[in-house]
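Support case: user asked for a sample of complex input and structure output to validate their parser. Sending the pair below.
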Amino acid sequence: MATMFQTTVAVVGAGSAGISIAARLVRKAPSLKDKVVIIDPSDKHYYQPLWTLVGGGAADVEDSVRDQETLIPEGVKWLKESAEKFLPEKNTVMTKEGTRVLYEYLVVATGVEIYWDKIKGLKETIGKNGVCSNYSYQYVQSTWENIRNFNGGTAIFTQPSTQVKCGGAPQKIMYLADDYFRQSGVRDNTKIIFASGLPNIFAVKRYADTLEKVIERKGIETKYRVDLVEIDGNRKKAAFQHLDTNETFTLNYDMIHVTPPMGPHEFIAKSPIADQDGWVDVDQYTLRHKKYKNIFGAGDCTNLPTSKTGAAIRKQAPVVVENLLALMNGKEMRAKYDGYTSCPLVTGYNKLVLAEFDYNKNPQESFPIDQSKERMSMYLMKKNLLPIMYWNGMLKGLM
Amino acid sequence: MTLKKDSEIEAVLQELEKPEQIESMHYLVKKLPELTAAIQSVEEKIEFISYTLHDKKSLTNLVNQVEEKVESLHLTKEHLETIITMMQMLPRLVQLLGKAEELLLFVQNVITDSQSVEYALKCFKDIVPMEKGLHIIKETNERFKNEKDTSHVSLLRMYRLLKNPAVQNGFKYLEALLEVINKQSK
């Protein structure tokens, strides 16, 4: 039976963005307690940045997951259902379970969808036949299994031409693998190939310069502007398509780490709140929807022209909250998001380049040291401090 | 000119004939006693303020009392200046206090979150391999306790001990150290 749920603020999605925005809202405006509802069906919440280290055998997968119910902020209601339809003209969100959520203000933070089936044969072979991926809790340990048991041959690491969450992750795992192959004595009889749909190793020159040197030092072969289109697990063959010439070519592999293509969720793409590419259409500075003035968007589901990372969300959440509260109180929206994003580029065990930049690809570094260099201190921060800051600071609306 | 005035009066009269205007007039007439009382009350208060301002004796008393109270606080010019400075700093202080509160809450969250404490300890052990060191000491203690060797350490035993790679390395280190000391002292 269809039910109706009425609320002041509805937040669709209980990921990094949804939870931290809801937590901030009730902290900044205690009068909103019990007037904010998060709509999300997931029982579990994953700290996905740790999966690079899990795949590299440097962290435990159990440390990357918590029960969602322990993270829903106090004073925020949780509707454990899946949002299915947006009716912005009626200030309504419909769920798959049939609930009509009537809101005054809406925050959309649904994240990004992984298109596993866009690579022919991938679903059938992932987790076996030397095929692995860090992009799923289910398969992340298969990456470490493959790296640990690798006895030499060809190891391929792919990156699609689509937007992905954390654009640096596809190469981070490759650097860890290279380090491990050297430690285990198989690097001399191993060929590592980085096959990427992008035109270069990194979009920001300052960090690209360092990474080019890392690639050279490690003896990694690069192939740019190529997309993985098919995997034959039994014959250990991977087919690629060149994005400029449309030509296809096949590579044999002994292990392949796949970063699958990603894009907007279908229910967002088909809704009136999406732009022509299917992302939530928000103003890049205020994060308010361009057409529907009582809707805001944050995180990976939006069309913000910046890299989709948790660090970006950390800077977007306060902007959404401040502007949403200003709007509620009839004040001018003053908070602005400058496109800040960060990518902790692990270049080996105990080495990391902390890339931080804005919309204009200008570095926005937090520490008074040259962050374009590979540093152990930054690696220790990523591994040891960031998870604690995430669970206890960011998700509590404190940082 | 007269014609214009007449038409204006006519317009006003027409306006007054409207039912909502009549209703409003009726309401005002009904409320007239209350409105008069309210106006009288305001008048009295204004008169009171006016008398008080002219009553120098009462005002002097009042000022004296306030001054006595302020004097008892021993406030100096410095205090007043500090108050002004503090008021100017308030916007920044509130910001800093907000950050301090956030930091405090974060620390509170971390120490009450057993999973995070466990994770931090695990990471600490990874960085400082204390367990290995502790394990060596523990096993040595156990062996020493269990073996209860009462025999003397013979010269042969000492010779065998000297051949142990760890002891050999120690001697080599000592040798190098003595060489360096010797070189530096020249």
